[in-house]
Design goal:
Helix 2 runs parallel beside helix 6 and helix 3 crosses helix 4. By secondary structure, this protein is mainly alpha-helical. The protein contains seven helices and no strands. The longest helix is centred in the C-terminal third of the chain and has 40 residues.
């Protein structure tokens, strides 16, 4: 019995440093788990549509007719080119999150995301961004005439 207890004690002492997780390791683990789960729950195809849709909208606004067949072809090219890399990028954001967020923030974010409401919010982000994107484009376009001369002056 003494040998058994000594063996268990020794294994525990040896294994503890291996099993102990530093705060930085824990942050990275939580952030990585969160990023992977969030990416898998997002509708990446909608995000990819948001990449090409403003280009088509601008063409239409300038008087060009864009048929559904043309839209489908553009979408197919974008989906084939960007869907998987976008998913990979989103899944890989764990280290970035771990660098910018505290352990408490990551734990809270992870806990929120584990709720039905948290998952619903994450799943709706692409649509919310799409709804706001035209406003962002309008804001940039309406101010570019003021900003560009300043930028050009600074860069000379």
């Amino acid at each position: 019995m003494k040998i058994f207890a000594a063996t268990i004690f020794t294994m525990t002492v040896i294994a503890t440093p291996i099993l102990a997780e530093t705060e930085e390791e824990k942050k990275l683990r939580i952030a990585t788990d969160y990023a992977v789960q969030a990416a898998e729950d997002m509708d990446i195809s909608k995000m990819v549509v948001q990449m090409w849709q403003p280009i088509v909208d601008q063409a239409v606004a300038s008087g060009k007719t864009v048929s559904q067949e043309q839209r489908d072809k553009i979408n197919a090219v974008y989906q084939e080119t960007f869907a998987e890399p976008m998913l990979d990028l989103m899944k890989a954001q764990g280290p970035i999150m771990a660098d910018h967020l505290s352990l408490a923030e990551l734990e809270a974010l992870s806990a929120f995301y584990a709720t039905p409401e948290g998952r619903a919010v994450m799943q709706k982000f692409p649509e919310m961004f799409a709804d706001q994107q035209p406003m962002i484009i309008e804001m940039v376009q309406s101010n570019i005439g003021t900003v560009m001369p300043v930028i050009m002056e600074v860069l000379q």
